[in-house]
């Protein structure tokens, strides 16, 4: 089990108990330092107080474990995933139905590698986006296996 999976097993019950959802966990080295980043969300969004409270709960839980799951120094950061956060899990995509998203494709569809639009429909194999095409709106069906990256987007 890698560090991210191990930390996920520790923090997800804490998140559920406090009404949060763990959106993502990263364990990365930047320069000389290691960072454990936990991104949380809840209906209506999270604020600084939520992040501070969750950081304290996770820190206490991690420090109490024997043996220490991360036996060397690291920085623990807890934050909101942001307004344009990535969509990674099935749950992320399900929660994005009805929202405006940005999708990058491996292979072009109708000569486009990138689409932005409202996620109208989601199945195991496909998604339907309602996209603006000049002055009208049209639906574009995309195979989910063709999606290289997806994230929430801000509509202008």
Explain this structure.
It is elongated and about 60 Å long. Strands 7-6-5-4-8 form a five-stranded antiparallel sheet, with helices on one face. Strands 1-2-3 form a three-stranded mixed sheet. The protein contains three helices and eight strands. 15% of the residues are buried. Helix 1 packs across helix 2. It is of the alpha+beta class. The longest helix has 17 residues. Helices cover 26% and strands 43% of the residues. The model has no long low-confidence stretch (mean pLDDT 93). It starts with a helix and ends with a strand. It folds into two domains: 77 residues, RimP-like superfamily, N-terminal (GMP Synthetase, Chain A, domain 3, 2-Layer Sandwich); 63 residues, Ribosome maturation factor RimP, C-terminal domain (SH3 type barrels).
Summarize the structure.
With 156 residues, the chain is an alpha+beta fold. 26% of the residues lie in helices and 43% in strands.
Query: How far is the first residue's CA from the last residue's CA?
Result: 42 Å
What is the makeup of the main sheet?
Answer: 5 strands, antiparallel
Please give the share of residues in helix: 25-40%
Strand content: 35-45%
**CATH architecture of the largest domain, please?**
2-Layer Sandwich
- The shape, in one word, is elongated
Structurally, the number of domains stands at: 2
CATH classification class of the largest domain: Alpha Beta
Task: Please specify the SSE layout and strand pairing.
Elements: H1 3-18, E1 21-30, E2 33-41, H2 48-64, E3 75-79, H3 90-96, E4 100-109, E5 112-122, E6 126-133, E7 136-143, E8 147-152
Parallel strand pairs: 2-3
Antiparallel strand pairs: 1-2, 4-5, 4-8, 5-6, 6-7
């Amino acid at each position: 089990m890698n560090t991210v999976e191990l930390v996920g097993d520790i923090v997800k019950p804490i998140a559920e108990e406090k009404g949060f959802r763990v959106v993502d966990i990263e364990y990365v080295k930047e320069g000389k330092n290691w960072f454990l980043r936990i991104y949380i969300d809840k209906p209506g969004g999270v604020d600084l107080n939520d992040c501070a409270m969750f950081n304290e709960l996770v820190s206490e839980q991690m420090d109490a474990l024997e043996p220490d799951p991360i036996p060397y120094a690291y920085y623990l950061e807890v934050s909101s995933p942001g307004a344009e956060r990535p969509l990674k899990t099935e749950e992320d995509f399900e929660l994005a139905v009805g929202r405006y998203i940005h999708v990058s494709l491996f292979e072009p569809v109708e000569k486009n590698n990138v689409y932005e639009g409202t996620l109208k429909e989601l199945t195991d194999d496909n998604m339907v986006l309602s996209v603006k095409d000049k002055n009208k709106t049209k639906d574009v069906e995309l195979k989910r296996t063709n999606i290289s990256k997806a994230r929430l987007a801000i509509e202008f």
